[in-house]
Specification:
Helix content of chain A: over 70%
Oligomer: heterodimer
Largest sheet of chain B: 6 strands, mixed
Number of strands of chain B: 10
Strand order of the largest sheet of chain A: 1-2
Distance between the termini of chain B: 67 Å
């Protein structure tokens, strides 16, 4: 039982990292980026390709792959910042469905539609307590989720760039009038979240299903995690991701409810949303 | 009769009813020709195009018309295919056609279930839910497989349509039937409600249309079409697999629906053709077929960033000449049918007080209405009566609580204190939709008129009853509005708000509340509007509450006035008394004015 929960924790850490990225995007650049996991997936696949085809060392391939993911995210961000700067969150988010479709298909073309042979960067058990093994991947992803959330918080609260970003997200027009350059800043946010998702996926992918669609659809549990924090709170997004992962691990052990497991993130999303939006009877405030 | 005055053949009722059938029959005819003449290889592709067209037709309703992002269309298709496979394995009676229908119904029911969250969720939240559903259903489908797929039980096509050519003809017939149904649904009440709910939920409810019903019917019809498409696909391949219904393909269909403008039937069919044509062309040119989705992705980003789609662009171009002829509302000083003795309203005109009307049975009774937002009392113990077929003006400075009052009595603030009754019936606990149906209508300060409708369709939607074309024309002419066939998207906001007033008048409610009807009109137009408003009780038998800042309009229209200030009733009664009340003057002009 406990082993199952711990096994789910690795996935939970990944959900949490992606959930933190989604929350960050939603807060700072007003978008729910459906292509969040897909850009990470594409970066990770590029890394695998670089390592296997060009015989680059793993670290160099990974770094280049992560950069590719960051640049891809930046391009999507550039589109959003250029043509949809005044658009609603819904319209900006709907636009990212295009890149999601495009990146999955492009990865089929470039890398084939088989799961990619990842060479694990981190592998093996980290600690074993009373027969329950905690893998290094688990430790790494959970730590990454927590560190990302804390780091983002520090940057937002304590640095000049953070203050500018918050100003930009809360009062975009006022911020621009104060001379904060919105486009470079928001594209930078896209770049950073692209980099973070790619790192997380490179770490976890070897121990998870690693086909393009499966990795890109991680956006669903990630969105569920972010929803626990209402797309606003980073700490709740981390908790949401971990809880979802643990639940998944637990349910996976019981054969009778194996099918329910697939619907777990979906049900999580529906229940959370219905609860948080229960007072949103109307589309407009008045 | 001069030729120009004759009713055009294209506007006659017979033509309006029959041309869709003629097009459908012609379409089936073309299908018959194609099924006989297409080379064998293309027949199979053509079936795929028809299947995709039906699925996109469904997306056109939920996404195109009703404006909700649904990323799980092929999951509904999978439900249809699954039901058809199951019935095939069970050797259920009725054969393929009946199974296909049952598959559509089953998918429609699943659509309602998935649509339930949409009653509270909108925009991007709903997109997350539908994508989550698609992803979960996909994994599940891979695990449980389609019935009969393990032992290879292929789906039995109907005897008459057993080979691919005949099955293609069957699929064309199904497409024609689906397109006809969608056409009449879109033109009818459901279609108007979908377009209305996409623009404004509050506006939809104020027209007496249930927002829930509008959203759920959109999901149900859309999913049912998805289910039919899936069932056809099952009959086409005879051994369906989960790989035909992946979330990736649902995303591609969504993008295709957005960029083609699938709320238009011809564009949905074009979308279906593109769905097959683009990969096929790529294959001919020796290019990886996966590029097709890359192309769709790029075009989708283009469509979503520019907010345009192919179908709408083409329609706009076709309509440009007609739009140019559509003038905005033009209010003459007096209605077109005013008697010879009528005089135009001037700034000194005052409303005549009809004692009989003032002492008539009250249509609206408000007792102790209180609305509290936190510690702020936006309405505090508001009480008054409005007699049937009379006009009351509700005035007060900005922030006096006038709009809050309208929201409260029209049902948008259910937690208010006090009692509101309409014609003796207590309205407590009734939704805005119910209140509108009981005869309490309102208009909005904001533009809540869905631009996707024509003027005539909007008037019919708001009126909620059978209207002769002549009645619609008459009320539109009375308010100087553009003709019924004009598109609301081609007129300015001031005109749309006049159309809103006209539509609510022809709905013949017992009480109509006009929230700043003259905002956005010039002063001359204010007076011209006043000349019409004061006739409404006699002409249409309705009582009015007019909220307005222009005192010239108020003075000339409203025999009685109620003044609100800081949420409380400052004065209520006949116009002359109320306007002479020192408290009212103080509230409007400030203390210093009074001291002079």
């Amino acid at each position: 039982m406990l082993q199952g929960a711990i096994a789910g924790l690795a996935a939970g850490g990944l959900y949490a990292v992606l959930g933190v990225c989604l929350t960050l995007m939603s807060r700072l650049v007003r978008v729910v980026n459906f292509a969040q996991a897909a850009t990470g997936m594409f970066g990770a696949f590029t890394a695998v390709w670089l390592v296997r085809r060009l015989d680059l060392p793993i670290w160099l391939g990974s770094v280049l792959g992560v950069l590719v993911a960051g640049l891809l995210a930046a391009v999507i961000g550039w589109i959003a910042a250029t043509w949809l700067s005044e658009a609603s969150t819904t319209n900006r988010s709907a636009m990212t469905v295009g890149p999601l479709l495009l990146l999955i298909s492009l990865s089929f073309i470039l890398f084939g539609n088989k799961p990619q042979p990842f060479t694990p960067i981190i592998a093996g058990p980290a600690v074993s307590i009373g027969g329950v093994v905690i893998s290094q991947v688990t430790v790494a992803t959970v730590a990454m989720a927590v560190i990302t959330a804390v780091a983002v918080r520090i940057v937002l609260r304590r640095t000049r760039v953070g203050t500018q970003l918050r100003a930009l997200s809360e009062r975009p027009t006022t911020a621009e009038l104060l001379g904060i350059r919105s486009r470079p800043l928001s594209i930078a946010v896209w770049f950073v979240t692209g980099v973070i998702s790619a790192i997380a996926i490179i770490i976890v992918a070897p121990s998870q299903s690693s086909d393009a669609t499966g990795l890109s659809m991680l956006i669903v549990p990630a969105a569920a995690a972010a929803l626990l924090g209402g797309f606003r709170r980073l700490d709740h997004a981390v908790i949401g991701g971990l809880v979802l992962g643990i639940h998944g691990g637990l349910v996976a052990q019981i054969d009778e409810v194996a099918l329910v497991r697939n619907f777990l993130p979906f049900l999580f999303i529906v229940v959370l949303l219905l609860w948080t939006q229960r007072k949103e009877v109307w589309d407009a405030a008045r | 009769m001069p030729l120009a005055d004759r009713p055009r053949f294209t506007e006659s009722r017979g033509f309006r009813l029959s041309w869709p059938f003629a097009v459908a029959v012609a379409g089936v005819g073309v299908g018959a020709l194609l099924s006989a003449s297409l080379p064998g290889y293309f027949v199979f592709l053509a079936i795929s195009a028809v299947v995709a067209a039906i699925a996109i037709l469904g997306l056109g309703i939920v996404t195109g018309s009703a404006g909700m992002i649904a990323l799980c269309q092929l999951t509904f298709a999978a439900v249809g295919a699954w039901v058809v496979s199951l019935l095939n394995v069970m050797e259920a009676p009725g054969g393929f056609i009946v199974w296909l229908l049952l598959g559509g119904i089953a998918a429609g029911l699943v659509g309602v279930l998935v649509g339930l969250p949409a009653l509270r969720l909108r925009g991007v939240n709903l997109a997350v839910v539908t994508l989550g559903f698609a992803a979960a259903a996909d994994v599940t489908l891979v695990q449980i497989q389609f019935p009969g797929s393990v032992d290879g039980t292929s789906i039995e096509r109907p005897g008459m349509f057993s080979n691919d050519r005949e099955f293609f003809f069957l699929s064309i017939v199904v497409l024609a039937v689906c397109a006809l149904i969608v056409f009449f649904l879109q033109r009818g009440r459901w279609g108007s409600s979908w377009k209305a709910v996409a623009f404004s939920e509050r506006g939809t409810a104020a027209a007496g249309q249930s927002v829930q019903a509008a959203k759920l019917t959109a999901f149900a019809v859309s999913a049912a079409l998805g289910g039919i498409a899936g069932g056809l696909l099952a009959g086409q391949v005879q051994l369906p697999f989960a790989s035909s219904f992946t979330p990736l393909q649902s995303l591609a269909l969504y993008v295709l629906a957005i960029m083609s403008g699938a709320h238009l039937i011809d564009m949905a069919i074009l979308g279906g053709i593109l769905w097959v044509l683009v990969p096929e062309l790529l294959k001919r040119w020796g290019v990886d077929q996966n590029w097709a989705f890359v192309v769709f992705g790029v075009l989708g980003v283009q469509a979503l960033t520019s907010g345009t789609n192919l179908g709408q662009t083409v329609r706009d171009a076709l309509w440009r000449r007609a739009d140019r002829k559509t003038a905005n509302a033009a209010l003459s000083a007096l209605p077109h049918d005013a008697g010879a003795d009528a005089t135009a309203i001037t700034t000194t005109t005052t409303a005549t007080v009809d004692e009989a009307a003032l002492n008539g049975e009250p249509v609206l009774t408000v007792e102790g209405l209180t609305v509290q937002f936190g510690s702020l009392k936006a309405n505090d113990d508001v009480s008054f009566q409005v007699p049937a077929a009379s006009i009351m003006g509700l005035i007060g400075p900005n922030g006096a609580g006038k709009s809050t009052f309208v929201d409260a009595i029209s049902g948008y603030l259910p937690k208010h204190g006090g009692r509101v009754s309409l014609g003796g019936r207590d309205l407590a606990g009734l939704s805005p939709t119910r209140r509108a149906r009981l005869g309490l209508r309102r208009t909005f300060q904001q533009d809540r008129v869905p631009p996707a409708l024509t003027v005539g369709a909007y008037v019919r939607f708001v009126a909620r009853r059978r209207l002769a074309a002549a009645d619609i024309d008459e009320v539109l002419q009375f308010f100087g509005c553009p003709p019924a066939r004009a598109r609301l998207s081609s007129v300015d906001v001031g005109t749309r708000r006049l159309v809103e007033v006209a539509a609510n008048v022809i709905a013949r409610p017992r009480l109509l509340i006009l929230d700043e009807p003259a905002a956005g009109l010039s002063h001359d137009e204010h007076l011209a509007l006043a000349a019409r408003l004061r006739e409404l009780p006699q002409r249409y038998g309705i009582a009015l509450i007019v909220i307005e800042h222009d005192l010239d309009l108020v003075r000339s229209v409203c025999p009685t006035l109620t003044v609100l200030d800081f949420g409380r009733v400052l004065a209520t009664g006949p116009q002359a008394e109320v306007l002479a009340n020192p408290d009212v003057v103080k509230a409007y002009m400030g203390e210093t004015e009074l001291l002079k």
